[in-house]
Structure formats: structure tokens, C-alpha cells
Specification:
Helix content is 54%, strand content 3%. The protein is mainly alpha-helical. The longest helix has 39 residues. The chain is elongated and about 115 Å long.
Amino acid sequence: MYCPRNPNKCRRNKDSHSDERQNNSGGRSSECADGAFTGEDPKLGEGLAQAAWALRHPAAPGAPKAPKGKNVRQEKKVIHPYSRKAAQITRQAHKQEKKEKLKNDKALRLSLIGEKLQWFQSHLDPKKAGYSKRGACELIERYLNRFSSELEQIELQNSIKDRQGRRHCSRETVIRQTVARERQQYEGYGFEIPDILNASNLKTFREWDLDLKKLPNIKMRKICANDAVPKKCKKKTIIAVDGDLGELELQDESSDTDEEMTAVD
């Protein structure tokens, strides 16, 4: 028999429905005290009883809600250390570490270049529209001697009597190593500075606002220690060296001829 309350699960005979209609005014005859319908299926009655109890006793505001099936996260599986997944995770970690190292190295290099350019910009002569090679070399010499006062202070502190050990030893070592490396570059293949020999490049360098992102706009140039010597002096020294070599060759030839002319007993 069709039941309007639950057409799929609840089936009753005509007598039960007639009794229910008669007793609607007086109370519930076909319901139990806990809200479950009496029927042939006991599981149905238990489910309805649980639903009725849940409606009568709502959960407290602070009580945790029951997790739903789709939103419940599955526990992470334990990865075997020699599995392909573990090898993949290791490769990704090494790749990320390499990226971070390159990023940090680039940032450190840019910061060092920025400090050097800031020093040169602050020590430019505002009256000059352009520098000669000799003037650029003089500016580089001043840059290489920028730690002289600090080294003197360290030596003065360490020269005090009754002092155990040397103070600021690590700082002194770093300064001396830096100056030695820069001096080697300057006297070797060249020390890189902004192109202050060109007037337009010097103007661009003066207008720089110390932003490291704008470093590509600044033209750089390598200056050697030999650039401070004029070309005429270089030619004279070359000629003098060639003359000395020629005299040495003539002396060697004359000595050879003298040896040949000596009589052999």
C-alpha cells in the first residue's frame, strides 16, 4: 500500500491507515516514544529514531563537525627511501637549492657592484665633463686605498701593550685579501669601472639614482695601470729596450769572432 510519509520504504495495510486517521486528534498510535515508526523493518525504525534524536538535540556551537567524505584528506603514504618517488623528491629539492644559491649569488654580486659604483659616483669631480685615462687611474688608486684609515686604526689598537691577541683579525684579513685581488686586476687585465672617459656615459652615470635594476644602463670599461703612462713614454721605453738588445747581440757576435780567431796549440 502506498504511504505518503515514505513511499519507498513504508508500506502498511488499510487497517493501520484507518486507525491512524481515527487517532490523529488524540495522539500518535503508530509512533513510538522515541519518534520511530513501528513497522516490519527494525533497521528503518532505528534510523528514524536517530534522525529524530538529532533534531531534538542539536550540536553545540563549539562542537567539532563531522568530516564529510569529499573534504576529508587522506593520510600521506609513507615513501620508501629507495623508491622512484623519493628520488623525484630529492631531485626537486636539489633543483630548488641550486636556484636559491644562484639567486643569492646574483644578489650578492649586484650589491657589491652597486657599492663600488656608489663610491665612484660620490667621488666624481663635478667640474669635469670627462676624464682622461690618467685621471681614471688616479681615481682607481684612491678607490684601492679606501681602507687605509681603517687598517691604520686596527694597527693602532693592536699596537697597545699588554693586549692579548689581535683584535679585528678577521676584518683585517678580508680587507687585505680584497685589496690584493683588486690590485691584481688593476695591474693585470684591467679593473672594471664606469666609462667616465666618455662624456655621455659620464652624464648617465651622474644621473644614476643607485637603483640596482638600472645597472644595465651604465656602461662599464676596464682600465689598466699601464693606461696611466703616456704613449710617447711607452714608445721611448720600447726603443731603449730594443737598443739594449741590439747591443747585447753585437757583443755576443764579437765574442764569438774572438774565440774563433784564437790559435789552437
